[in-house]
Amino acid sequence: MATVDIKGVRKSYSGREVLSAIDLAMGDGELICLLGPSGCGKTTLLRIVAGFIQPDAGQVLVAGDDVTKLPTARRRMGMVFQSYSLFPNMTALDNVCFGPRVAGQKRDVQLARARQLLDMVGLSSHEAKFPHQLSGGQQQRVALARALAVQPQVLLLDEPLSALDAKVRVQLREEIRRIQRETGVTTMLVTHDQEEALSISDRVAVMNGGRLLQVATPAAIYREPADGFVARFIGSGAVFAGQAQGDHVRVADFTLPAHAAAAHPRGEPVEMFIRPEKVQLTPRNGHIPTGALAGEVRETIFLGSLTRVRIAVHGATDLHLWADLASEHAEDFKPGAPVVAQWDASAPRVMKA
Amino acid sequence: MNRLGLGGWAILVLAAIFFITPLVMTATFSFWEGGDRYGFDSYRILLHSPKLFESAWLSIQLSLASVLALLVLLVPAMIFMNLYAPRLRPVFEFMATLPFVVPAIALVAGLSALFTGPEWLIGTPFYLVVPYFFLGLPYAYRAIDVGLKSIDLDTLTEAGQSLGASLGQIIRLVVLPSLRSAMLGSALLTLAVVFGEFTFANVLLFHTYAVYINEIGQHDPTEAAALSVASFLLTWAAMLGVLVLGGGRRPAVGGR
Amino acid sequence: MRSPLAVFFIVLFLAVNVLFMLAPTAMLAIQAVFDDDGAFTLEYFQALAQYQYASSFENSLILSLLSATVGVIAGGLIAFAVLKDDAPRWLRSVVTSFSAVAANFAGVPLAFSFIATLGTLGLLTKLLKTWGIDIYAAGFSLYSIGGLTLVYSYFQIPLMVIIFFPALEALRPSWREAAENLGASTWQYWRLVGLPVLAPSLLAAWILLFGSAFSAYGTAYALTSGNIALVTTEISAVLSGNVVSEPQIGAALSVGMIVVMVLVLLASNLLSARAARWSVKS
Q1: What is the DSSP string of B125-152?
Q2: In chain A, whose CA is at the least distance from the CA of C277?
Q3: Which domains does chain B have, with CATH numbers?
């Protein structure tokens, strides 16, 4: 178990910068998700920490020791790959034994350790099976046990769940969280799935275009996204580009209430962001209160207890707003229905554009 | 990282030496005119030899006929077998393995033991198309099998039929086009293999190109060397054809 | 079966195979056990024990074993080097196209190339002599099993390269990375993962190379002209009437070859089932 410090790590491929000066500090036993769209550099960063890629500049420190020049095999980091990384010629048990075996441990020590780990991931009864006889979820459990068998200082997971189907994905991510807590191993997980990142991380690191945009707890990321990209990427909601105007934001021809705008100089280009659960809808019958937007329901998406409604704003064809309604009240808001959307002026978040 | 290293380079350099030396030596040898004179004599003589062109023309005809026989006999049979009689698959597999188990020379022995007539069959060089068909069969079978597996014939046929197409239309418009590269690849390979084939022609006493080279070689080594160089270049041309025309099936290996 | 056309084509294909492949093969087996008067006999098979024929089998087997092994090892190493991460990209196209050429450059032209190079009067032989190296005095002969192995390598190695590329590409980079990550050295990775995973492909490739050498005829014919007896050249000698022997001997030799190929194929199936037991569904 150890802290990980990534300091000023840069990487370019043939002149194209894929990582620009990344700094990230992971606490002992912390689980951090690197979250971002594909091509944002998150996998490159993970592979630099693992030692598969050498950074152009910067350092990786584990428990205070510089490991940047250390070969992968001597870093003691367990890694779980996206898929198909189990050795196909070995049983589940032999796969888990692999690390201790190449380290020259005695066979009975290997076996004891491997059986204990297979038990931890709930696969004791499958130890004699070959990878192709296991389901995708089971294979990733074995891969997890195999990575833990070397008693790693750091556990690295490269999109471990993305090849699995939805139900298994949810089960396994909860299991990863449980096992990570039990073992207390410092863990870095790469994913492009924001729900996955928010549900299991201690902190989430959002990346785009080779930069770290925000590193914060899931709740903070959700409530207070650092910029428009994070806001759009995490959860759902509407982002409007406009100018700050006192405690309002001017968007196209509308002046929308947002207390947070007061923190910005008048006329500054900003992005206003509002989550669907903060938007209230009422059927429109004539009068439109100040600060409210008139619009028309375009589509409704049933999400179980909630129904998400997309509203096209009148007089501005490219402005869309999302609102979450309790499903039992959603009957009045069929596509085509005229509505009025309102929100509390303290709800929107306003960010420098 | 998976690096080439000194050992890797050493392997590649040694391989290059092994494979290039005989070619260079043969090419040089073909220019030898006795003593220390070098020139194009042997090539000149060959170009004026009508037997060379006769034998080459025969080999070309035989290659084309063999390709035709292979495509006409094998492709429809494989398509229909997959569609209507998948239980016959093991039989087909067995047939495609046989030419590997029965060496060419053994097949010639069997053919000459079994067929002593009629003259119209065994008296013409085109009798050779029979063994050449089996020479190309394993390659062509493998290639077309891979091609058929990649297109999910049953679903395609059902989809086509649901859209109102007849079986003939489906085969002509959907199945054959998707087998194009497999058919082209096996056709070119068969062309090359048959063109240089020696066993059957030599034993059955037909004057094909390879038999002619052998004859020349008995009395004039430099001319034989010239022919060897020429056939290496010919084979290369055919193979480049395979790679260029049949290429693009495998994605290029790119760096990360 | 719905379409009469389908029946026609399937039956036609099977009929051609039965008539021109199965029947001739069966004919060989029959011919080999009946004497000129039509009486059943095993004397022709017993005749295979004679020195001339036994040694031709021995030579053919040694040559095939040797050249297949050389081909698998050398071709495997070349394919492996070409697919390294930092090998130049053009190298692969060059090696692939050259291999496709060289693998098909068998037979008479190949034999002549080597005679022109390493024959008693070959250019390289003479060149080496001017440097004071007399390879023929040192015991080398192009017309020996060793020489033939060298010549056969010229098509065996490229054949291996071509068939081994796909197998090597099926080795997933993540296996290597996982092994490295778990602390394995390169050697440990190959011993515990790489080679065991490749074993079935290696075996299949070896069998293919064995078969290609065992049934090779043109190269041997043009090179040995009777110096070394191989099964293929013995059969052709019987067929063309160059030697005084009954046609039944040719048939018996042919049946012998087929038996060897069947045995090799069966052995390889058994071995590869063992080597690939981890990939068999159960």
Answers
A1: GGGGHHHHHHHHHHHHHHHHHHHHHTTT
A2: A89
A3: 48-246 (1.10.3720.10)
**C149: domain CATH number?**
1.10.3720.10
For testing contact with chain A, the best of C182, C202, C272 (most A CBs within 10 A) = C182
Task: Tell whether the torsion through CA atoms of A279, A280, A284 and A286 is positive or negative.
Answer: negative
The pLDDT-based confidence of A1 (bands split at 50, 70, 90) is: low
Cα of C281 to nearest chain B Cα, Å: 19
Across the B:C interface, residue pairs with CB atoms under 8 Å apart total 264
Is there a contact between A45 and A210 (Cβ–Cβ < 8 Å)? no
Q: For position A177, what pLDDT does the model report? A: 92
Asked whether A126 and A153 are in contact (CB, 8 A), the reply is: no
ipTM score here? Answer: 0.84
* pLDDT at site B225: 83
Q: What pLDDT shows up at residue C64?
A: 93
Q: Do B110 and C96 touch (CB under 8 A)?
A: no
Q: pLDDT tens for residues A43-68? A: 999 999 999 889 999 999 998 889 88
- At residue C1, the pLDDT reads 45
In a domain, C5, yes or no: no
Evaluate if residue B165 carries a pLDDT over 80. Answer: no
Please determine, for residue B19, whether its predicted confidence score (pLDDT) is greater than 50: yes
pLDDT of the residue at B226 = 85
Q: Residue A128's closest chain C neighbor by CA?
A: C278
B2 to chain C, closest Cα gap in Å: 6
pLDDT confidence tier of residue C129, bands split at 50, 70 and 90: confident
Candidates C175, C185, C279; nearest CB to A73: C185
If one compares B255 and B202, the residue with the highest pLDDT of the two is B202
Out of B73, B98, B214, the one facing C222 most closely (by C-beta) is B214
> Per the CB < 8 Å rule, is A98 touching C182?
yes
- pLDDT score of B2: 61
Q: Which amino acid is at A145?
A: A
- pLDDT per residue as tens digits for the range C203-224: 888 998 999 899 888 888 888 7
Cβ–Cβ < 8 Å for A341, A309: no
- pLDDT of B252: 32
Query: Minimal Cα–Cα distance from C198 to chain A, Å?
Result: 10
Interface contact C278, partner A, CB < 8 A: yes
Residue B25: what residue type? M
B33 or A221, which is more confident:
A221
Average pLDDT over residues C117-130: 85
Question: What are the DSSP E strand ranges found in chain A?
Answer: 4-13, 16-26, 31-35, 57-62, 65-66, 77-80, 154-158, 186-191, 203-208, 211-216, 238-245, 248-251, 254-257, 269-274, 280-283, 293-302, 306-313, 320-326, 338-342, 349-352
Q: Which two tokens stand for residue B249?
A: 């099936």
How close, in Å, is residue C16 to chain B by CA atoms?
9
Q: Which of C89, C181, C185, C197 to mutate to test the interface with A (most CBs of A within 10 A)?
A: C181
Q: Is A89 helix (H, G, I), strand (E, B) or coil?
A: coil
Q: Is the pLDDT of residue C255 over 80?
A: yes
**Count of structural domains within chain C:** 1
Average pLDDT over every residue of C63-86: 91
8 Å CB contact of B198 and C86: no
- State the DSSP code for A302: E
C181 with A73: Cβ contact below 8 A:
yes
C97/B11 touch (CB, cutoff 8 Å), yes or no: no
Nearest alpha carbon to residue B136 among B201, B209, B203, B185: B185
State which residues form the domain around C71.
44-276
Residue C185: its chain A contacts at CB < 8 A? 73, 102
